[in-house]
Write a structure and sequence with these properties.
Family: Belongs to the STXBP/unc-18/SEC1 family.
Low-confidence stretches: 447-466, 517-566
Shape: globular
Number of helices: 24
Structural class: alpha/beta
Largest sheet: 7 strands, mixed
Oligomer: single chain
Protein name: SNARE-interacting protein KEULE
Strand order of the largest sheet: 6-7-14-13-9-8-12
Pfam families: Sec1
InterPro entries: Sec-1-like_dom1, Sec-1-like_dom3a, Sec1-like, Sec1-like_dom2, Sec1-like_sf
Radius of gyration: 27 Å
């Protein structure tokens, strides 16, 4: 987009964005990337701006009436703010607004480009995106949703933004969705219809691209599955034991920002430095999906390796009493070395973070709580064990007791009927506000909690001799680390989709294969097992997930990355999964894991990416309309 505005003369430009497109841009690239493309100034469309009549401007804006009016006001009349305007819309513009621009004859000659970029999603990592609809839960699943005008607006915004993902990747999906239950004994609510309505909206927008985007595929090139949070109420609350999830769960991080303390070179108080835990950090890439115990071990190995290769460190080590050094001691030793550089700075950062997480796990007794959570999910614990924990662990934090009760409510909703819930609240000593979150789990129950669905795939499993399991153990998984038994439900759904085994009565296809006339229509399973003639019109890019375990210092070689890139191009059709109501880091990890396993790139989309505290706040808001997200703190 930015590169297309370059003329033969290398002149600096101004980039003007609105509140949504500035977020799209900040998720996609850094200020240095923008500057490299010839942008010297970034401005807010709605702030008073200095006239720069000798400079060209790039407008990256949503196609909204107020934005178009603002743009026309900038560029019309005798003294426009800028010399020329290159206008890019984040999603398709209406005919009315386009006519509005064309009718302004003073502006037309000053327009250098007028294009639909179809870029209105927020890339969280190489295989994840969000539509940034933070209020989806209350607008689509909350109390009073039946009459809410916000319901349709929310679905429409999500559908528009999801469609731009397929426009920018030049992909046409088979659109599958979790169907509302067809049961005469239960009333189908607007909550049940969310995936159906969203699927219809997405397909409606994508169908229009066939006429507006050059070389847009005529036949489906990938699969999209749309579900909502009712398929798995436990994943957003349970303690997930991977490095990435633990960082965002137990450390007070602001998004991906972490405040790192580094020793002062002058010998004074430690200096505070803000760091981003993102894809550009190779150690983060290597360890983010590892179990916290595995990540800690690998970090210790890397530190030990560095010390063994460094003579100054060996001398320092030799002056000690012998014996094995702790990771913390190794870290201090390395920081004191003259060769201490950016590479070791990154390693030292992760040693500090892992150490902090392990201390929190110990202080809050998370191992015991984590074991109980997983035992509940797999049917190895029940009411007796929950009550025993609440009685004996009075010092557990209110948030952890709340999370345990929310998991319990998702598995045993009947235990909260009448005054039973009140007794549990008194035993756990949690506030009525927190108890609201437990009671509101019923809004996310989905069809299975109202009435058992007629056969097919269900949230609950009957496990002989067990109490009440909502997951069955996966025999093919290697349970190397304690507490790594839990898996998000989405993992099972994606695997079934990959094999063509998703029950059609529960997961319907909005655009049936029979709708396409290119040759003989194929069944879903046939589509998945044969080499597809229809492929994405964009070339596959290197998947950063494909980086190997890495070298001792956490950096991978270029040749390995080139190999990963070629592997990526050999893969089958992409699988897209969109979760309405917020995705979790464990679900994002599943997208990376199954890409390797299925040899098909799995991309996870959602209305938001939530850590447990954010999710709990949103569940509270399902019945508390007077409060806002900013008012509630856990």
């Amino acid at each position: 987009m930015l590169g297309s505005t370059k003329t033969s003369k290398t002149t600096w430009k101004v980039l003007i964005m609105d509140k949504v497109t500035v977020k799209v841009m900040s998720y996609a690239c850094k200020m240095a990337d923008i500057t490299e493309e010839g942008v010297s100034l970034v401005e807010d469309l709605y702030k008073r701006r200095q006239p720069l009549p000798s400079m060209d401007a790039i407008y990256f804006i949503q196609p909204l009436k107020e934005n178009v009016i603002m743009f026309l006001s900038d560029m019309s009349g005798r003294c426009p703010l800028y010399k020329k305007a290159f206008v890019f819309f984040s999603s398709p513009i209406s005919r009315e607004l386009l006519s509005h621009i064309k009718n302004d004859t003073s502006v037309l000659p000053r327009i250098g480009a007028l294009r639909e970029m179809n870029l209105e999603y927020f890339a969280t990592d190489s295989q994840g995106f969000i539509t940034d609809n933070e209020r989806t839960m209350e607008e689509l699943f909350g109390d009073g949703v039946e009459s809410s005008r916000k319901y349709d607006a929310c679905i429409n915004t999500m559908a528009t933004r999801i469609a731009t993902v397929f426009a920018s990747l030049r992909e046409l999906p088979y659109v599958r969705y979790r169907a509302a239950p067809l049961d005469v004994s239960t009333v189908t609510t607007r909550r049940d219809l969310v995936p159906t309505k969203l699927a219809a909206g997405v397909l409606n927008y994508i169908d229009k691209y066939a006429n507006t985007i050059p070389n847009f595929p005529k036949n489906p090139t990938c699969e999209l599955l749309i579900v909502d949070r009712s398929i798995d109420q436990i994943a957003p609350i349970i303690h997930e034991w991977t490095y990435d999830a633990m960082c965002h769960d137990v450390l007070n991080m602001d998004g991906n920002k972490y405040i790192h303390e580094i020793p002062s070179k002058s010998g004074g108080a430690p200096e505070k430095k803000e760091v981003l835990l993102e894809d550009h950090d190779p150690i983060w890439l290597e360890l983010r999906h590892a179990h916290i115990a595995d990540a800690s071990e690998r970090l210790h190995e890397k530190m030990t390796n560095f010390v063994s290769k460094n003579k100054a460190a060996q001398i320092s080590h030799g002056s000690r009493n012998g014996g094995e050094l702790s990771t913390r001691e190794l870290q201090k030793m390395v920081q004191a070395l003259p060769q201490y550089n950016e590479q070791m700075d990154k390693l030292s950062l992760h040693v500090e973070i892992a150490g902090k997480i392990n201390r929190v796990i110990k202080e809050l007794g998370l191992r015991e709580l984590g074991q109980l959570e997983q035992d509940l999910v797999f049917g190895d614990a029940g009411t007796k064990e929950v009550i025993n924990f609440l009685r004996t662990k009075q010092d557990a934090t209110p948030e952890n007791k709340l999370r345990l009760l929310m998991i319990y409510a998702a598995i045993y909703p009947e235990k909260f009927e009448g005054d039973k819930g009140l007794k549990l609240m008194q035993l756990a000593r949690i506030s009525p506000d927190d108890m609201n979150a437990v009671n509101n789990m019923r809004y996310l129950g989905g069809p299975d909690t109202k009435k058992a669905s007629s056969g097919g795939f269900s949230l609950k499993f009957d496990v002989p001799g067990k109490k009440h399991a909502v997951r069955k153990d996966r025999k093919d998984e290697e349970g190397t680390w304690q507490l790594s038994r839990f898996y998000p439900m989405i993992e099972e759904l994606i695997e079934k989709l990959g094999k063509g085994e998703l029950p059609k009565n529960e997961y319907s296809c909005m655009n049936d294969p029979n709708a396409y006339s290119n040759g003989t229509p194929q069944s879903t399973s046939a589509r998945n097992t044969q080499v597809q003639p229809a492929h994405s019109m964009r070339s596959r890019r290197t998947g950063t997930w494909a980086r190997p375990r890495g070298s001792d210092d956490g950096y991978s070689s270029d040749s390995m990355l080139r190999h990963a890139s070629s592997d990526f191009r050999k893969m089958g059709q992409r699988i897209f999964v969109f979760i309405v109501g917020g995705a979790t880091r464990s679900e994002l990890r599943v997208a990376h894991k199954l890409t390797n396993k299925l040899k098909r790139e799995v991309i996870l989309g959602s209305s938001s990416l939530d850590d447990p505290p954010q999710f709990i706040t949103k569940v509270k808001l399902l019945t508390n309309q007077e409060l806002s997200l900013d008012d509630l703190q856990i």
